[in-house]
């Protein structure tokens, strides 16, 4: 109750959920003693695969015996997921105590919800000056509250694509503008650029960071990977090659994210051994990123069929998700719910060879109604609407080896996991 009360108070400190600016976060961090200046950080910016890349880096670091702090957003099931210190999430009491202390220091000054959470993270992180911090940027980066560091170990740029366009001027909703927002203010250290969706995006990134004096490493130029047979794959960079086991997470695209994670840690030269990488990539914990649900209330409804939940919610996310689906020799059924501000038609356009689609409402969120979403699938031969997750699952006739995928939103993924 105490934690929820403080969170409710946080949400009342500013009339807008998001108000892109650095003034408020800098002011509060100054009151807190500028804790962000006392930590060692790897910054992760981009549109897609930020969380997956962080999960890969984190798993390898833990295997190597490093203590880490991790800040991600949004959370999937509980807000505690955003606050990891010494390789452990804070429990409710610890989190409430942290929030209460920062709340007092803030003294009711206007600040957005995400900004005060970020300040809370930095305040606690400063207590562990030797830990490595993995910090995920929010909406963009240039005016994001995570962009108050003066130095870092590295900046990792994951795949950039069109998303959150409603926060940009109507006449400037381009990939060039998005790349500018995400990469123009990267710190001068090391910049690792992951695989991008097309050559245009990669060239745009190169142009935007051309005057940044960081050491720069680009996918397919400075590090890469290839598939091999017999359950292995091959990673290569300037330090040499590694024959690696298949990671414990689904999807060919995850090899791209793990390659970026490996490149980052090898570039930093902090003592990561080959065995740390080989073992670490088989122990990755990834929530709502092609996550197979193997037990629980919802799993019981599908019995022996596979149930997968994935939080992809934009065009590029749909593209890589459907590339994975195309590798499966079975019937695919999809349950779909999305937020109102997404590019629904673009997302939907990637779904091919799907046996059935069931649209649903996402409760307690600013989502598009399932009925309205259904109307955007006019050309699909088998689409229906159901008001809830459970009703949707029960309505689908699954045959042997069919899989059921629930996707379209991280918020929906959280509802699924909580309900399960």
Structural class: alpha/beta
Strand order of the largest sheet: 2-5-1-6-7-8
Number of domains: 2
Q: How many strand units?
A: 17
Which fold name corresponds to the CATH topology of the largest domain?
UDP-N-acetylmuramoyl-L-alanine:D-glutamate ligase
What percent strand? 15-25%
CATH homology superfamily of the largest domain: Mur-like, catalytic domain
- Level of helix content? 25-40%
Count of DSSP helices? 15
Low-pLDDT ranges: none
Proper CATH architecture of the largest domain = 3-Layer(aba) Sandwich
* Outline type: globular
Query: CATH first level of the largest domain: which class?
Result: Alpha Beta
Distance between the termini: 23 Å
Rg from alpha-carbon coordinates: 21 Å
Mean pLDDT over the residues: 94
Task: Please supply descriptive tags for the structure shown above.
single chain, 420 residues, alpha/beta, UDP-N-acetylmuramoyl-L-alanine:D-glutamate ligase, Protein-Tyrosine Phosphatase, Chain A, six-stranded mixed beta sheet, 15 helices, 35% helix
Summarize the entry for a quick read:
By secondary structure, the chain is an alpha/beta fold. The chain has helices at 2-11, 23-31, 50-63, 92-106, 113-125, 175-183, 199-208, 253-268, 274-280, 297-302, 315-325, 344-348, 370-375, 389-395, 410-419; strands spanning 40-45, 68-71, 84-85, 88-89, 132-136, 154-157, 190-193, 215-218, 223-227, 232-237, 240-245, 291-293, 306-309, 332-336, 356-359, 383-385, 403-407.
């Amino acid at each position: 109750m105490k934690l929820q009360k403080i969170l409710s108070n946080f949400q009342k400190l500013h009339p807008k959920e998001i108000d892109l600016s650095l003034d408020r976060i800098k002011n509060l961090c100054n009151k807190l003693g500028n804790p962000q200046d006392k930590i060692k950080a790897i910054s992760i910016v981009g549109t897609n695969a930020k969380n997956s890349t962080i999960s890969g880096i984190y798993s390898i670091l833990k295997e190597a015996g490093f203590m880490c702090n991790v800040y991600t957003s949004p959370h999937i099931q509980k807000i505690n997921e955003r606050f990891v210190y010494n390789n452990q999430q804070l429990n409710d009491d610890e989190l409430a105590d942290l929030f209460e202390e920062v709340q007092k220091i803030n003294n009711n000054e206007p600040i957005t919800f995400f900004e005060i959470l970020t300040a809370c993270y930095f305040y606690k992180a400063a207590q562990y000056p030797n830990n490595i911090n993995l910090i995920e940027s929010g909406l963009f980066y240039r005016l994001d509250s995570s962009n108050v560091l003066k130095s870092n170990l590295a900046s990792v740029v994951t795949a950039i694509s069109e998303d959150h366009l409603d926060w940009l001027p109507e006449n400037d909703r381009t990939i060039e503008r998005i790349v500018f927002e995400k990469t123009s203010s990267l710190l001068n250290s090391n910049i690792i650029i992951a695989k991008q969706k097309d050559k245009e995006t990669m060239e745009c990134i190169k142009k935007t960071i051309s005057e940044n004096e960081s050491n720069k490493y680009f996918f397919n130029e400075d590090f890469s990977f290839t598939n091999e047979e017999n359950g292995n794959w091959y990673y290569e960079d300037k330090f040499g090659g590694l024959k690696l086991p298949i990671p414990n997470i689904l999807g060919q695209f995850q090899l791209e994210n793990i390659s970026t994670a490996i490149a980052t840690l090898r570039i930093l030269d902090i003592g990561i051994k080959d065995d740390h990488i080989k073992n670490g990539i088989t122990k990755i914990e990834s929530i709502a990123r092609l996550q197979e649900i193997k037990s629980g209330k919802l799993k019981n409804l599908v019995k022996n069929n596979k149930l997968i939940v994935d939080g992809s919610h934009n065009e590029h996310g749909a593209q890589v998700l459907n590339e994975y689906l195309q590798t499966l020799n079975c019937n695919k059924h999809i349950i779909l719910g999305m937020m109102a501000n997404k590019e629904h038609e673009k997302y939907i356009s990637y779904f091919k060879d799907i046996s059935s689609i069931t649209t649903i409402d996402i409760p307690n969120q600013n989502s598009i109604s399932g009925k309205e979403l259904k109307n955007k699938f006019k050309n699909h031969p088998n689409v229906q609407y159901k008001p809830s997750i459970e009703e949707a699952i029960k309505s689908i006739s699954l045959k042997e080896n069919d899989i059921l995928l629930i996707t379209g939103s991280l918020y929906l993924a959280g509802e699924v996991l909580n309900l399960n």
